[in-house]
Amino acid sequence: MGENIYDLTSKLAPFLDRHLVFPLMEFLSVQKTYDETDLRHARLDILSNTNMVDFAMDIFTTLYEGKEVSHELIEQRSKVVSQLNSFQEETDPIFKIFAEKEVQKQLQSSRDQQSLMNYLVENHGFRPEMLDTLYTFAKFQYECGNYSAAADYLYLYRGLVPVTDKNFVVSLWGKLASEILTQNWENALEDLNRLKEAIDSGASNSPLQVLQQRTWLIHWSLFVFFNHPKGRDLIIEMFLYQPSYLNAIQTMCPHVLRYLATAVIINKTSRRQAMRDLVRVIQQEMYAYADPITEFVANLYVDFDFDAAQEKLKQCATVLENDFFLVACQKDFIENARLMIFELFCRIHQCISINMLAEKLNMTPKDAEKWIVNLIRQAKLDAKIDSKEGHVVMGTQAVSPYQQLIDKTKNLSFRTQILIPLKGCCYTEE
Amino acid sequence: MSSRFFMSDSESESSSDSEEYNKEPVGISAFTFSDEEEDQKRIVRSAKEKRYEELNNIIKNIKNYKKNRDMSSLLTSNIYKSLCIFCSCLSFEDLCKAYQKALNVVKKEEGGKIPGFFLRCLVDLEDYINQVWEDKDGRFGSSHILFFLELLLVSCVGFKCVYVVIDLFLFIFNRKNMSKNNAKSLTTLRQKLRKYTRDFEEEIRLFRENPDAEDSDVEKDEVDEDDDDSVMDDDEPLGPAAFKKEPSIPKEEKKVVESESDLDSDESDWPSDSDETSSSSEDDRKIEGRTRETFLKKKVDDLEGEKTKKEKIRDKRKTKKEKGESDDDTKDGWQSVSKKAAIPREKPKMFGKDDEVTIPAVVKKLSEIMAARGKKGTDRKEQIELLHELFNIAKENTLGLPVQIKIQFNLIMSIYDYNPSVSDPMKVDFWEKILVKIDELLDMLAITPELAIGEHITEESESLEKPPYRVRGCVLTIVERMDEEFIKLLKACDAHSNEYVVRLRDEIQTCKIIDKLLQYEEEHGMPSDICRIYLRKIEHLYYKYDKKAAKQVKGELPEAEVTSLNEMDRLCKYIFVRDNTDRLRTRAVLCHIYHMSLHDKWYEARDLMLMAHLQETIQHSDLPTQILYNRTMVQLGLCAFRHGNVKEAHNALLDIQSGGRAKELLAQGLLPQRQYERTTEQEKQEKQRQIPFHQHINLEMLECVYLVSAMLIEIPYMAAHEFDARRRMISKSFHHQLKNSERQSLVGPPESMREHVVAASKAMRNGNWNLCRSLLLNDKMNAKVWDLFHEAEKVRLMLGRKIQEESLRTYLFTYSHVYDSISLVTLSEMFELPYGTVHAIISKLIINEEIMASLDEPTSCLVMHRTEPSSLQSLSLQLADKLYNLVENNERILDQKPFFSRGMQLLRRNLKSDCCSREAVTVIVRRPSGMKGERDEKTEETESEKGISLWDTKQLLYAGSLSFLFVYLPKSKSLRKCWGPSGDVIQAGPKRLKNFVYIFFFNEMLRSIWYLI
């Protein structure tokens, strides 16, 4: 149980939809960090306001073995079923319309929702009120846990309502949740971007509302970013380099920094710059939020305290293991964190003993040596191993002033050469 | 003398009838005088006689003064005053002179014994001067006496004694109404007399002890003296023995009698007066006793008749006096009640005896009183009293609280009104009164919950009688005004005096009132009002250090405990949400930040500051808010410093400290202006903006913190960039201090705070951290600066550590070229830092490429790489940098290619369309003087047939050697005068050129121009 001080579920949950919390709950029960019955209670609570009565009943029976399922649940079930039937009757004509091949074609070809709407109204007896029906039905389906159906309906709905509609943004949220819950990451990312656009352009909302929505979006997007293959780049792009989202994180949910830090660490391509910015943010928010991952970054890049970083790295492993979003990238993280430490080491030192290095990297000396050899072979490291002393000797990085001067000027003359033809073209154009 | 003549003339003109009327008798007396003089000439006398006579004459004159004083105590004329004093001085001086002359004779004849008559004269003179001096009763005179005197004056010109007589009249009786000039004369006379009598002190004493003895002596010597010396010549014959025994009594009596009689009847006095003069002249002539007797007999009759008259008059006067007294009493009474005086006058009007005191009546009266408010002739004090009275009446008649509230409200307003000037503080007693009144008002409001008070309620819709009471008025405004007055009062006191402390005690009461109102408003008020009163509360709260809150921040107290921090949080958050005016919110934010900084909530304070985005907008707000912003920034900086965030501290304090105007920026005092003098108006305004003393931030501490922060940043930076040509200054004022100390030929041990910091900086430059620390952290500095922090010990520890770290950095920068390698262990011993810290610092230096070195892990050594360039190398590196910039610039130009080519195309199209392409594009290039320094202003006109020299010109423009570029647009064929920034007109070539487009060499400008084309 000692590990769950770093568990963020309780912090994340307020910003998530009921349905989105379920996967987290499932994960927690697998990890067994919390008491199983407590979790079941929590789940029952969550379900109480949804239409997933069957699911609730299941949990109820496991929770209170031998007890009768409460009347409320049974009543609710019959109510939900009758509602479902009536909705289906209502929506039947709508789906008939959309089932027609012509309409399908039109749907795919048409981009403008207004013309599409006109087309449907004129040719297929579609009534504008039907849209609302569609929307409520989608909501109902979602509440019932029928996410893929909800996603389909909302797709249709979105295609037909104008952007200014009051339900438009809500439908986007619904769509995103449905896509996440059906694990359709490609669509989810698309919806995410669409929603982001809608929020950013939402001038009518008060700043506070926008902030709230952004915070939700940040949390929801975690599902997408840590599951979508491109997500790890995108999360940095969105959280770190879009000031409005960074502000939202800093003010509302500094705990998201954990995911951001992890993403930066496991991102190989643009790490340096991102790391510098991340360190700045982490330093700023030190007082508000700290966990092993952010502390690891701070130790390494602020204090250059390798021993402490090493300690933190060990803690990080357990934290990652228990985090729903990060569990998948645990291996990546450890590998990259090691590399980071080593890289820093090499930049600072000209001679390192392998034993010490092994200790710092949390490896046996033999493994460490092998690891270093691999790095040298892959030309990632300019170094030689002195096996007599058991040292790694770095290649000299010092640059002589001559070299500096040449580097600087060589580049210049080249660039000026490029300019000449450009200038010339101005003349010749005449 | 001329004045005397003039005066007599002018007066005689004005009173010619009376002059004629009185002419004869005066003429007679004049003749008698002249006779006497003739007599004197004929008689041959000894020197002694001569001298004595002279003396006697003068003495007689002086005596006459006294008599005349009695006689003409009615005189009020101011014109005579200077004259009379002058003359009395003269006559006294005459006396002195005459005595001086007679001195030889006296010595000879009497063996140095001073003649008794002379002594007596002196004594009398002294007495009467004292009397006059002490006499404070003013007397009203009548013009008749004046006329008489004028007559005398006119007819007796030339007779000194008469002058003197007249002068003395005036002198004696105008003492009361004397102008300053006269008073002065009197003083001189008195002083002279005193000085003079000092010589005769002994004799005078003796004389005073035994005046009779002297008298008899004198009588033996001089028969005439008897008459003269027996002071009251007229009364003497009546009872000489009695009078001789007690000469002072009749004197006084006579005086009283005469003065009284004078007051009422001049005519009755007039004859007696003439008698006296004539009698005295008779004395002079030494008439036989017989004649004298007959004269006297007649006189006695006269006198007796007069006496009865006088007695009557005395009675009359007595009654009159009593009357006067009673008059005075009523007058006094009137004066003392004058504030209330109007009440008896108003009272019947307000509440005639039979009138019932009803609410409408009271309200009507109230509005009557208030109608006078602000009018020119209104007695503000009286108004206050009136209202006070009205309030009491309302209270006595139990008209209900609403009425009382209304009156109280108006009463408070009129007390505010009492002080006509807004900038001056109100009087202390009024202030104390108003505190009480407001307190009462709030209490009354608190116990009548069904009452609505507000500015939105009109006079018509007021309801004072029935329960949903409605009263017009704004309590909030009153309390706000009270708060402002309180600040004004404080500012008016000397901050270091006890007075200030006493006044400051009222803050408790002020806060109490604000709290009361706050409570009331929370229940009844609208959000905007609540915001206002909250802000008032906040402004009384934010600068105070709460020990409990500080403990809470440290976690020693539970979060739930109510401290000023929680309170601030609650109040401010309410304002953040509810306030519609930006000003309140801004002020609340600033106060909140200030308070949090004060209690070391650094992160929260910083975040709030960042989130509020005040930096961009603050210059648009009002001055007090800007001052508050400055104060907040300072406090934030201090907080950052306490937390060891030196850089943040420096940044926060930089703006305040950089101009050396911290005092002014924090509104803690006026700085003398160098360039121009303030007008009084400006000074007044500035004084109004000042912050009261108890809210001041210690400027020395502020400066010290700033300088120390600057030192910690600047010294390592200077060491690192010693050879850098482009080294910039981080802190100007710090450099200023350094330079100042370098300029001194002899630097003594540091005394002031600044000297300490400078000395510490020098020590740090050499890596001598121990000296540096001891220079900053010693008893002197503790007393001056560090002990002012709430957690002084913590700050000192932090500072000591910072000094160690920064010294290490400085040391490495400065001396790294001396080392080939250096052991980290040695460094950690040298700087008494833990190994880990040294390692971390050095690692950071290496990573940031601040030093060219790397660590050798097995030996834990820092190995230097010899890469520090020689001076030639560094110069060539700089050159390379500049070249780099040039190329960058060139590329930037090409980045604008879209614009450029578009412009060119347009231009070309224009060129083609215009047939006279020779003049198509005229580029005037002007090189302003002083740009390069060597060339004078010169105009180059470049005409190009093809108009394509533009590109080259533009290049020149970019290179910075040209200032403008003008392009003619042939198509529009319009010419506008173009002015260069230096003010000279750009001459257009041919007249047909009608349109210049003028370009600065800034990229942005250029861009817009190409759009124009």
TrEMBL record, chain A:
Domain PCI, which positions?
224-399
Q: Which UniProt keywords apply?
A: Cytoplasm, Initiation factor, Protein biosynthesis
Assign the protein's first listed, main location to one coarse class.
cytoplasm
Instruction: Give GO terms: molecular function aspect only.
Output: translation initiation factor activity
**What role does it play?**
Component of the eukaryotic translation initiation factor 3 (eIF-3) complex, which is involved in protein synthesis of a specialized repertoire of mRNAs and, together with other initiation factors, stimulates binding of mRNA and methionyl-tRNAi to the 40S ribosome. The eIF-3 complex specifically targets and initiates translation of a subset of mRNAs involved in cell proliferation.
PANTHER family, alphabetized? EUKARYOTIC TRANSLATION INITIATION FACTOR 3 SUBUNIT E
Name listed for the protein in its UniProt record: Eukaryotic translation initiation factor 3 subunit E
UniProtKB/TrEMBL annotation, chain B:
Function statement: Component of the eukaryotic translation initiation factor 3 (eIF-3) complex, which is involved in protein synthesis of a specialized repertoire of mRNAs and, together with other initiation factors, stimulates binding of mRNA and methionyl-tRNAi to the 40S ribosome. The eIF-3 complex specifically targets and initiates translation of a subset of mRNAs involved in cell proliferation.
Where composition is biased (Basic and acidic residues), the residues are 243-258, 282-291
Subunit details: Component of the eukaryotic translation initiation factor 3 (eIF-3) complex.
The family note in this entry says: Belongs to the eIF-3 subunit C family.
Recorded GO molecular functions are: RNA binding; translation initiation factor activity; translation initiation factor binding
Q: What's a single GO CC term here?
A: eukaryotic 48S preinitiation complex
Q: Which InterPro entries does its entry note?
A: EIF3C, EIF3C_N_dom, EIF3CL_C, PCI_dom, WH_DNA-bd_sf
Domain PCI, by residue range, is 693-869
Query: What residues form the membrane-spanning segments?
Result: 145-173
Q: Where in the cell is it found?
A: Cytoplasm
The Gene Ontology biological process terms listed for this entry are:
formation of cytoplasmic translation initiation complex
Feature: compositional bias, Acidic residues: 10-19, 212-237, 259-276
Enumerate the residue ranges of region (Disordered). Answer: 1-37, 211-291, 306-348
Mind telling me what this protein is named?
Eukaryotic translation initiation factor 3 subunit C
What domain of life?
Eukaryota
Write the record's keywords in alphabetical order, separated by commas.
Cytoplasm, Initiation factor, Membrane, Protein biosynthesis, Transmembrane, Transmembrane helix
* Pfam families in the cross-refs: eIF-3c_N, EIF3CL_C, PCI
